[in-house]
């Protein structure tokens, strides 16, 4: 058994896809087990290559089903807690970043400013397992009952600082609808009220609010067959990358150099105003680096990525 730990969220799993596939390719005859939250199961299926998901929330005592793997691979963090959890499974070998506190002296050194995809590819490469950082595509699910060809606006985030102001999302939704986009709003059940406020402000119909109405599988299908995605730095942005759906991602306070879409794909645009000096943030509302992004800038970026899609379609034809 090859055990990989990634007990985090949607974007975390999507950015680990190249590393998971590299492990699959390096050990085709061994069972690949992923320790991750159970609610990610639909996305695990879309990543592919994983034989079994063992539901794992947090870094407590490991599930007995994870005992004595041939290899344990820490795709979760730098340690020491994640290292110790995997060491508790009594693996034949632990592949992880060096961490003296956890007693793990093997492995490369951690780089705080590294892109999340590159971080895990570099870890495996250090151990002689080649990984392709561009291998980010996800399996396309059946469309099911979700609408296709829509423009998905995802205003929420677990991190308040990463939320672009709702009033600007309303203005953006109004402008895109006027330009012929069928706009829908996604989010968690807790974000439904905000999505409804945005829809009301933009004059969107009641069925435009999908926040709280889609599980992860339906959300993935929605993004896979969407015309466009506009979101903050959150999991939906990584779904758009995985399906090569045109996207505009609004970054702040974390730079797209850490979590942005891959370079060389003009259909994905990251907006970032973080360079330079900024006033101290008081912890309320959007971070200043995100609040500095205006509606007109986002509308212009939408036009750019849609132009890129048209050009690539014409070239393919």
- The number of helical elements comes to 12
| Large-scale geometry | globular
Structural class: alpha/beta
| Cα-atom radius of gyration | 20 Å
Distance between the termini: 45 Å
The profile of the biggest β sheet is: 5 strands, parallel
Element order, helices and strands? EHHEHEEHEHEHEHHEHEHEHH
Descriptive notes:
Helix 9 links the parallel strand 8 and strand 9. The chain has 317 residues and is of the alpha/beta class. The strands form two sheets. A five-stranded parallel β-sheet has the order 3-2-1-4-5, with helices on both faces. Strands 7-6-8-9-10 form a five-stranded parallel β-sheet, with helices on both faces. Helix 2 packs parallel to helix 5, helix 6 crosses helix 7 and helix 8 packs across helix 9. The mean pLDDT is 93.
């Amino acid at each position: 058994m090859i055990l990989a730990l990634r007990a985090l969220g949607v974007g975390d799993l999507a950015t680990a896809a190249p590393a998971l596939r590299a492990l699959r390719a390096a050990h085709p005859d061994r069972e690949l087990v992923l320790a991750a939250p159970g609610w990610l199961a639909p996305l695990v299926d879309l990543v592919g290559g994983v034989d079994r998901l063992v539901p794992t929330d947090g870094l407590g005592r490991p599930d007995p089903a994870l005992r004595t793997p041939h290899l344990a691979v820490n795709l979760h963090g730098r340690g020491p807690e994640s290292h110790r959890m995997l060491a508790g499974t009594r693996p034949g070998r632990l592949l992880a970043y060096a961490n003296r506190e956890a007693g793990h002296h093997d492995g490369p050194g951690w780089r705080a400013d590294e892109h999340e995809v590159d971080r895990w590819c570099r870890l495996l490469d250090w151990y002689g397992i080649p990984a392709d950082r561009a291998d980010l595509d996800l399996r396309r699910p059946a469309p099911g009952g979700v609408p296709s060809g829509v423009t998905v606006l995802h205003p929420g985030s677990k991190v308040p600082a990463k939320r672009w102001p709702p009033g600007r999302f309303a203005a953006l939704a109004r402008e895109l609808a006027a330009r012929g986009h069928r706009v829908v709003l996604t989010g968690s059940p807790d974000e439904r009220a905000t999505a409804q406020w945005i829809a009301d402000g933009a004059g969107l119909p009641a069925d435009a609010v999908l926040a709280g109405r889609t599980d992860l599988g339906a959300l993935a299908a929605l993004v896979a067959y969407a015309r466009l995605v506009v979101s903050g730095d959150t999991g939906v942005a990584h779904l758009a990358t995985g399906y090569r759906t045109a996207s505009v991602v609004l970054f702040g306070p974390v730079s797209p150099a850490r979590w942005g879409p891959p370079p060389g794909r003009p259909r994905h645009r990251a907006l970032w105003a973080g360079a330079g000096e900024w006033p101290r943030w008081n912890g309320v509302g959007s971070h200043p680096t995100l609040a500095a992004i205006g509606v007109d800038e986002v509308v212009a970026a939408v036009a750019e990525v849609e132009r890129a899609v048209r050009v690539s379609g014409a070239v393919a034809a």
